[in-house]
Amino acid sequence: MSPTLTTSNGTTHIVNGTKVSTSNDTKPKPAELDASKLIITECKTLKPIPPPEGLVYGKVKTDYMLVTEYEPKTGWSAPEIKPYGPLSLDPASSCLQYCPNVFEGMKAYLGPDGKPRLFRPQINMERLARSIHRAALPSFNTNALLTLIKRLITLESRWIPNLPGYSLYIRPTVIGTRTGLGVAASDSALLYIILSPTGPYFRNEAGGSETISLLAVSEHVRAWPGGTGGHKLGLNYASSFLPQSLATERGYDQILWLLPEPNGERKITEVGAMNFFVAVKREDGDVDIITPSLDGTILPGVTRESCLHLVEAHSSTSNSFLIPGLPATLRLHAIERTVTVSDLENWAVEGNLLEIFCTGTAAIVASIGRIGLDGLSETAAVKNRELVLPESEKMGPIAKGLFEALGAIQTGRLQYDNWSVVCS
Amino acid sequence: MSPTLTTSNGTTHIVNGTKVSTSNDTKPKPAELDASKLIITECKTLKPIPPPEGLVYGKVKTDYMLVTEYEPKTGWSAPEIKPYGPLSLDPASSCLQYCPNVFEGMKAYLGPDGKPRLFRPQINMERLARSIHRAALPSFNTNALLTLIKRLITLESRWIPNLPGYSLYIRPTVIGTRTGLGVAASDSALLYIILSPTGPYFRNEAGGSETISLLAVSEHVRAWPGGTGGHKLGLNYASSFLPQSLATERGYDQILWLLPEPNGERKITEVGAMNFFVAVKREDGDVDIITPSLDGTILPGVTRESCLHLVEAHSSTSNSFLIPGLPATLRLHAIERTVTVSDLENWAVEGNLLEIFCTGTAAIVASIGRIGLDGLSETAAVKNRELVLPESEKMGPIAKGLFEALGAIQTGRLQYDNWSVVCS
Fold first, then answer.
1. Which intervals carry biased composition (Polar residues) (chains A, B) (predicted)?
2. Topology of domain B212-413, CATH
3. B239 — phi, psi (to 5°)?
4. How many Å separate Cα B140 from the centre of its chain?
5. Contact B96 A97 (CB under 8 A)
6. How many angstroms separate the CA atoms of B125 and B35, rounded?
7. Is A35-198 assigned to CATH 3.40.50.720?
């Protein structure tokens, strides 16, 4: 079932091959989200911009936010850009009680021309529309939202740090605001966008490890068939907090999420809040870049899709694009399939396991150095059986090349299709 | 791992058999939740009380709410009873972004002596402590919370409708208020309690059906082994909104949640937001009252546990308690086990399927009249294969007896152990 992107009281008929919309004239149609109705309320004073080097991910907010409300009778209100500040919410609001909350993660980058750029924003808009449908929230025209995001970014462009690896994080959020306690879909909503200047997601000590460590966990399961793991719903995240703290206690940076299979295998789904990739040497010398298939338990990440695409482009006959640092003669194959913990162990034993990395909007690409294989069953005092990657402290060449390629495209230093979209 | 109910900077040692707490004197200990610090801010004018017959579940709120905040340095603030009104929340708050939100559902009933009563509140407090732990929220002393609930109910007792089947619904809620966008546990929180006068959850037309209908759904799965279905987290609920609307379109009241098993069987987990029960006639003439085991996918409902207990009590040798309307000679057996859709079909074919009902704080006990067996695969236009109960329009005698027994105990008309607790 495809998401409905517009709200309508009317019905659509096919008359002589032409779509005719018949609305009930006695009921006014709820208003669509309309970027042309934008109201801007200016801040009296602007905040000082903190030095980028000290930024903690997602802590500092910019001067403005964008807000629009949906009510069933009136539809979407005129969007407003106004000073960043608290929301006023009824304590019975659905967003606090039953969590029909969705969000997107995007970034604005400063190009060499000084213009702010978005990275493949249309994919975020399409995913947001699917999330909205899954959470049964009021739908809206995502083209209008994208126009509003560009307008907000243009207004706030002084907040984009002009430093490699830094950007302005964009968090479009939609929350259910129905105030009845009966368990039912929220027929009212608040859509807002907030911005936060941000640097590298994982900060390592100077001269320290370039990689992160994972603990493979199957005692807690992030997502399952028939669940919501394939959508960007806020409710997918809080269940990770407890296992994440247990992994931290045991000395691991993030969780490798597993789904136990009926045959006893432990299927790999995601890493923390990122997609999982493994690079495996083949008998013919080529390299398979493997990521779990989008079976409904995996978030269809924009960076995931972009990495698969760039891997294919590197090995295409035209050779018009090469992943930085990798030889043109190295053939890479992008593969979506099931990956289990046993697969990793077997590839390691055979000497074919080259790299493991993960991708996401926040971290872009992060290399994995080691994986604790025994989950939470071992106490922190007992050493977990570990899979240690060949270069466990350094970012692998494939991960590093993808990271650099994406950074070049995102900041407009490298033109690639229409992936980088200037805000104007 | 058992939940930590108190927050402490110190460590606890056993010295000569006595627990001694050693706190770090340089850091002040965050304050515990302390009911004796209660502040009451009175309303200037009180709301008029609407006629109970027109109440929609969870819509009307009373005059007051109770609020207390947790900050890592200072701990729990002095709890405050103040006029019901909106919360002020940062747009980046964890509760809106990642959903570490938990709640409880309880009710206050008016006894024949005019005093408000709670039903087994200690079970709610224990479950809340487990939910708080699972959502990695700051913990608190639930005895202090129960004292505060009783104080709020006493203040608001004029809102408890004095009508059979009516009560004052109590919604303790804890939400994460951390404002960083990094995916991490919320180290700050807001705890609040709101109240709503309420009548029967399912309203039927006068003279209409006393039962509800279910659509058995396995395309969407509510809970999974290793997931959070066994805890009362807000994030378990929003994923039901879309499938519920599809079930409504197909003419069914609620969803019968299924978990597909590796062997192809469809295991029954819950009904909507309620626990599932089936009454099956045995060869020896006794009746098994069966509900799914608490395997981590099932919410340990207070009404569920109470029904299992009353079923056992009815058949105990002392015969000091009988379920109203059931003969003393009828032997009932409370059984927790796996139940599949095939089990229901087989029992129906054999003529042994007596009743299906569901239990929860809101509805107490609701009888099921029919179950659509083919899930969402059929379109609304095609008739679903249905399992129709022998008395499909009337509440079955076992469900009705349990409903009446619970009502009598909850309102203090029947003394049963210490299940009904007077607020004073």
1. 1-25
2. D-amino Acid Aminotransferase; Chain A, domain 2 (3.20.10)
3. -65, -15
4. 20
5. no
6. 15
7. no
Report, as an integer, the average pLDDT of B61-83.
Answer: 98
Instruction: Using only the alpha carbons of chain A, give its radius of gyration.
Output: 23
Confidence check: pLDDT of B116 > 90:
yes
Of A88, A218, A224, nearest to B227 by CB-CB distance is A224
Task: Say yes or no to pLDDT of A2 above 60.
Answer: no
pLDDT digits (tens, 9 = 90+) for B352-367: 999 999 999 999 999 9
Mean pLDDT, chain A, whole residue set:
91
Nearest to B227 among A169, A180, A221 (CB): A221
Residue type, B285: G
- Nearest CA distance, B322 vs chain A (angstrom): 33
**A135 vs B contacts (CB less than 8 Å):** 238, 241-242
Listed by start position, the domains of chain A span 35-198, 212-413
In chain A, which residue's Cα lies nearest the Cα of B60? A180
Mean pLDDT of the B133-142 span: 98
Structure confidence by residue, pLDDT tens digits, B326-342: 999 999 999 999 999 99
Do the Cβ atoms of A152 and A40 come closer than 8 Å? no
* Whether B272 and A96 lie within 8 Å, measured CB to CB: no
Pick from B54, B43, B60: which is nearest to B169 by CA?
B60
Residues 6+ apart with CB under 8 A from A148: A35, A38, A66, A79, A193
What distance in Å separates the CA atoms of residue A119 and residue A106, rounded to the nearest whole number? 8
Predicted local distance difference test score (pLDDT) of residue B391? 81
Tokens 């959850």 belong to B201
Q: In this predicted complex, what is the ipTM?
A: 0.93
- Helix ranges (DSSP H) in A52-192: 94-97, 121-134, 142-155
Q: Decide if A241 contacts A255 (C-beta within 8 A).
A: no
CA-CA-CA-CA dihedral for A369, A374, A375, A379, to nearest 10: -110
**Nearest CB to B134: which of A224, A242, A260?**
A242
Q: Report the predicted TM-score, pTM, of the whole model to 2 decimal places.
A: 0.93
Task: Read off the pLDDT of residues A328-378 as tens digits, 9 standing for 90 and up.
Answer: 999 999 999 999 999 999 999 999 999 999 999 999 999 999 999 989 876
